[in-house]
Fold this protein.
Amino acid sequence: MTAVVAGPPPTSTVGGGSGPRLRVAVIGPARFPLVEPFAGGLEAHTHALVVGLRRRGHAVTVFAAPGSDPRLAAVDLAVDTFASSPAARADVGAPPERWMREHHAYLDLMLGLRRRTGRRFDVVHDNSLHHLPIAMADVLDEPVVTTLHTPPVPWLESAAALASERHRFVAVSDATARSWRHALHAEVVPNAVDTEAWYAGPGGRRALWSGRLVPEKAPHEAVLAARAAGVAIDLAGPVLDRAYFEQQVRPLLAEDARYLGHLGRAALRHVAAHSCVAVVTPAWEEPFGLVAIEALSSGTPVAAYARGALPEILTDGVGALAEPGDVASLARAIRTAAQLDRGAAREHAVRHYSHDVMLAAYERVYARADQGDLVA
């Protein structure tokens, strides 16, 4: 049985944003709950989006993985309720059970939204990384906006290729928009952080690497580069690939390279504010780089591989870029970034990547989608 609720009642109340109050359904990721300490930037972004839209007066219903922050009053995506039958699992081409659970959850959600009588939302905002909210968008009465948080992957690309013209796409960076250009047009709305919560700090002697400890984030290269630069470094984040951590990261740990664990937001903000430089080491084309914005909001300059959106973010003397995968180049970037002006780093984040900037942009996207305006 579907877990979808009816949604907020119709209202014409004017909210705290720049226009009339909207009724927004936010479809969140199913991979991890929206709760601190966040498993990744997507979860942090979706949580902040919901909180920020409500603060600006909009009526928001969020669909998210079980265990999400109770303050969100999220409707659970039924990711733990489906199991394939023995007969289905016997199929040699059967996908992994985790894939099937997420598939079932989003199928349940989209069919549940369709079965409702009447239009209960002004817009549905898809942040799911799943193909079904795109593929099934046309069964809904409401317009759908999908934010692309990743470069093209086969299942999303397939759904997007069949999307109707009324479906609006948003990319989190120019780099991500360019990567999708062969398949669709995406308006760019950069991600953001709470620049009031990520406060400016005095810096310190140690560098910081934060994020998911997985091969595609390459934290071991951050340790090697910091060591080559003569700068001690701290790592913070969830270990989501235990084999990688044990084989590539743990052997490098010492007094000059500490693993602090998966920190909550308050603890991570304190560390960022007291770091001399943040190191960002994507081994793929990073769609955005929320950890870079978090650091800049703390007044901490960033040394990063020039991949994906990071060259867009680290402008105006707030960071130093290195050749992707080149540890020696990154070591030089660490030394350079550590000397940059902390005030300029903070000002850059506030001006370009605050929640208010992002939320105002999404309000404009929602309004155009609600009005059926197809011009970006």
Notes: The first strand starts at residue 23 and ends at 27.
